[in-house]
Every structure is written in C-alpha cells, then in structure tokens.
Amino acid sequence: MREKLEALQAEAIEKVQQADNLQALQDVRVAYLGKKGPITEVLRGMGKLSPEERPVIGELANKVREAIATALDNKKNLLEEAALNEQLQKEAIDVTLPGRPVKTGGPHLLTSIIEEVEDLFLGMGFEIKEGPEVETDYFNFEALNLPQDHPARDMQDTFYITDHLLLRTQTSPVQARTMREYNGDKAIKMICPGIVYRRDSDDATHSHQFTQIEGLLIDKNVRMSDLKGVLLEFSRKLFGADREIRLRPSFFPFTEPSVEVDVTCKVCDGKGCNVCKHTGWIEILGAGMVHSNVLRMSGYDPEEYSGFAFGMGVERIAMLKYGVDDIRHFYTNDVRFLSQYHKA
C-alpha cells in the first residue's frame, strides 16, 4: 500500500504539471482528491491492515494528500498569474495615441433664449414667477377678463381636461395668481416663462406646445411710456443696440389699450426686404396697459394702481433672432441643428 500511495503522488504531481489551464487543473483535483479518488479508496481499505500498519499508512496518505494539494495550489497561482498577464497585455493602452474627442452637450436654443431674457429683466428689477401648467378655467380666462361667453376664447383653442380644468393656453394665469396673492397691497414687477398648450395643427409656424414669456408691472402712476421704455431696452439687448420699436393698436381682452410691438428688421435695417415683407418692421410681441377689470378682480383699485403687461413667444423670438424658418426644428432633437447654437 505504501508503494501505491507513492505512485499516486508521483502520477498526480505529473498531471498537475501537465495542466495548461484552470479547468484542466480542477479536473486533476477532482480525480485525485475527490470523494471517489484513489487516495480515498486507499483510506477506505485501511480496515484490512494490521493495527501496527494503520497509523503508518494513515500518516503517509495524509502527506500524499497534502503534497498533491500543495502542487495544485502552486500550479493554480501560476496559471492565474499567466492569465492576468495575458489580459493586461491585451488591454494595454498606448498613451502615445491621440485622444478620442468627447462630444459634450449644451443648453437648448430655447433654454438659452429664456435665460437671456431672464437675465435682462432681472437686471431691470423684475422677479421670475412660475405657475401650474394644468390650470383652472377661472385663472386662465375669467380672471383675465374673458368670461364664459366671451368671443375671444375662440382665439385660443383649448385642451380641456374637465369643464373647469385645462392645459393653460398662456402664462397670463401666473400674473393673475400673483395679483391675487398680493391682494392689491403692493407693487408687482415680474416675468413668467413657461410651456403653454393650444390645439393647433403643427406646421412651420405653429405648434400645439410652445413657450411663452409674459411680463407684468403694476404700481402707481404707470404709463404707456414706461411700457415702451422697457420693451425698447429689451429689443435692443436681444436684437441689437441700433434697433427701434413701434407700437401698433391691437386688441387683447386683458389690456386696454393694447398694442402689437414691432422691431426694425435686422436683415435690412428697416429699409425693407423679403424677411420683413418690405415693411422694414417685424412683429415680436403683444402688450398693453392692464385692463381695469383685471385689476379690480385681483383686488387692485384701478383708480390708484395701473400697470402694463406683455407677452412673447420664445420660439418666435428665436426664429427671428437666428433666422430659423421652421418651429418644428426646436422639437425634433436633430443634433445637427441644435449644435449650431451651443455657446463655446
């Protein structure tokens, strides 16, 4: 039995040395040290030995087992190290190669316009206010001098959720909420940018969802000339220091008098071209003095307070400023278009 154990040790160690991968090494471990291996069989046959031989053979069997296990562990370490070195060789990085450019994003053009307008009005002392996009009929219409039967409601084809809830068609409800919050006790100087929704068919100049920025100033002794001064400063900062504006009479239910505001054409400097339809002017926003009914419904005394309001479409401003000919470009997420307007 001694000879058999020594032969098994020599045979197993030779198989360990021949193993060239971890799986082959594991097969050797199972073959010689497993429950059905030859060493286990030798130990099971020790009952046939004399009492004097049992401890001797048992000790030898344990030494053989330990020798084979040690050889297996040493070989495993060598194979793992070789595998790691091979992997490191395959994954070696040539630091002399030129770097791969990493494309970075930037703010969306509409976001840039909003931030530019916000910075401008913050510099003039205005606050920035926000409100819900799901609005009540009262704040979206009635508080703005548009009762249920008012024909001007037809100008804004609305997404209704219930009879009294809707997706806001303008950011003017934020103005109405702010006036109601202040309860006629203090002056207001605010702008409110946000998303609005109307049931328009999408085309080059219309979208069912677009962005507005509206402004409101209420105080004592506010005049139309104050409105013109603010809008002139806005136009020159956004379109160029040499721009001029004009106010044309118009109609909005929540302002009286109401005006459309035009700016001199950037392309022809007001001389007339195809862009401005040879008028020298381009319409940019609507404005007017806050209607006395709107002031009164919000708790302001129209005999003591007056104010002006204005509203602009951010997409229209962006289209005019950068010469974009289709509003849908802002929403189709074409990186080729959007990347043209990333600031360095």
From TrEMBL:
GO molecular function, one term: magnesium ion binding
Cofactor: how and how many bound: Binds 2 magnesium ions per tetramer.
Pfam families assigned to the protein according to its UniProt record, in alphabetical order: Phe_tRNA-synt_N, tRNA-synt_2d
EC annotation from Swiss-Prot or TrEMBL: 6.1.1.20
Gene Ontology BP, a term: phenylalanyl-tRNA aminoacylation
Swiss-Prot/TrEMBL keywords: Aminoacyl-tRNA synthetase, ATP-binding, Cytoplasm, Ligase, Magnesium, Metal-binding, Nucleotide-binding, Protein biosynthesis
Reactions the enzyme catalyzes: tRNA(Phe) + L-phenylalanine + ATP = L-phenylalanyl-tRNA(Phe) + AMP + diphosphate + H(+)
Stretches assigned to the Aminoacyl-transfer RNA synthetases class-II family profile domain: 109-320
Subcellular location: Cytoplasm
Listed cofactors: Mg(2+)
InterPro entries noted in UniProt: aa-tRNA-synth_II (IPR006195), aa-tRNA-synth_II/BPL/LPL (IPR045864), Phe-tRNA-synth_IIc_asu (IPR004529), Phe-tRNA_ligase_II_N (IPR004188), Phe_tRNA_ligase_alpha1_bac (IPR022911), Phenylalanyl-tRNA_Synthase (IPR002319), tRNA-bd_arm (IPR010978)
Binding residue positions for Mg(2+): E256
Main location, first listed in the record: cytoplasm
Domain of life of the source: Bacteria
Gene Ontology CC terms: cytoplasm
Assembly mode: Tetramer of two alpha and two beta subunits.
Record-stated family: Belongs to the class-II aminoacyl-tRNA synthetase family. Phe-tRNA synthetase alpha subunit type 1 subfamily.
Protein name per Swiss-Prot or TrEMBL: Phenylalanine--tRNA ligase alpha subunit
